[in-house]
Amino acid sequence: MRKFLVAATILVALAASASAKIYFEDTFASGDLDGWVISNWKKNEGSAGKFEVSAGKFYNDAEADKGLRTAEDYRFYTISKALPADFTNKGKDLVFQFTVKHEQNIDCGGGYLKILPKGLDQENFNGDSKYNIMFGPDICGSSTKRIHVIFEKNGQNHLIKKTIPAESDEYTHLYTLIVRPDNTYEVRVDNKEVAKGSLEEDWDMLPPKEILDPEAKKPEDWVDEKEIVDPEDKKPEGYDDIPKEIVDPDAKKPEDWDDELDGEWEAPMIPNPEFKGEWKPKMIPNPAYKGEWVHPKVPNPEFKPNPELYVYDSNAFVGLEIWQVKAGTIFDNILVADSVAEAEAAWAKIEETKKGEKAMHETQKEEQRQKDEEERKKREAEEAAKKEADQSEEAEEEQKDEL
Q: What gap in Å lies between CA 109 and CA 222, rounded to an integer?
């Protein structure tokens, strides 16, 4: 019986693997932009950035870690590639995954990709081109470090209502979006869940389920003042007679004061410690207070649940459309599939990449530190030698003058 169960489990796993569909995958192993179309957008203005395929300055494998790299500062980057075949995600998971490496220590710029429907004019792909999903990190200064998850529905782009933090260091990070047929989603970073929830609740793609009751009104006799003036509290007699300032009792007329020349001497005024300001009656809890009035809600007649909110009938292109102040970001390991297992399988390789590139970077930094230290010592030695030579020359000149 146990052997049968094991065999059945293996068969189920094999069947799931066999049924998994990879719609798009690009690791830039060819070393070029094979199939990618760079848009003409912003070229006439001179602000369209250039792309290159590179593993960057530090990596685990110089060839395997090559990716799509932005190469010029202060530029717009717009490029796309057609999927081998258009597809719908109806009835299936939609997995959108890729790596982002901000090795330039990015200060301001996008790191997100898009899935776009059929009909895209790749030569003129731009920020207004219709897309289905925009996903990935966006960083600008210390105030913006978030992961965008934007869905297009009915001609509108809907931003997620949650704030999902993005990674902002110099190393490779894996970003994964999973959209499921039950109208739920999950976001992962480096194969760890960072957000999940409902498409209905976390976006405003549908009208709200409830609205404020248009017929409800706050009752006229509703009391919402928490406190009232204490009717028993009375102003003390003579309160208003207390002056704000008084004559300084310690002040004395200067001995050299001349009344004829300086005028009649007047002692300076100082704040009166007895003065308490304008009198105000104390407040007490209002016995008639009913609490803050809450406007009741009613079902929204405009709301209609959409069990296919997750569906996109056409998914035909993957595109990148971003602005960067400081270039150098590398996009790699792009995957569009219907299998979470396929996405998870990629993590093992990427984890090794992260370890290797970090080790190389640490080595580079140590080598640079040693180089800087050697140059510092050399510079100090040269300055000391020059100073000694100058002092020796000055001493010789003094001797000549004495002679």
A: 52
Q: Which residues, 6 or more positions from 126, have their beta carbon under 8 angstroms from its beta carbon?
A: 39, 41, 42, 78, 321
Q: CA geometry: angle at 193 spanning 188 and 197, to 5°?
A: 95
Q: What is the pTM of this model?
A: 0.77
Phi/psi region, residue 31 (left: phi>0; alpha: psi -120 to 50; beta: rest), is: left
Burial of 194: CB neighbours in 10 Å, binned 0-12, 13-18, 19+: middle
pLDDT digits (tens, 9 = 90+) for 36-79: 999 999 999 999 999 999 999 999 999 999 999 999 999 999 99
Between the CA of residue 3 and those of 9, 15, 16, 319, what are the distances in Å?
10, 18, 20, 48
Give Cα 205 distance to the centre of its chain. 22
- DSSP H helices, 179-263, are 199-202, 259-262
Cα(333)–Cα(342) distance, integer angstroms: 12
What pLDDT does residue 18 have? 53
3-state helix, strand, coil in the chain (%, to 5): 25, 30, 45
Strands 297-299 and 94-102: unpaired
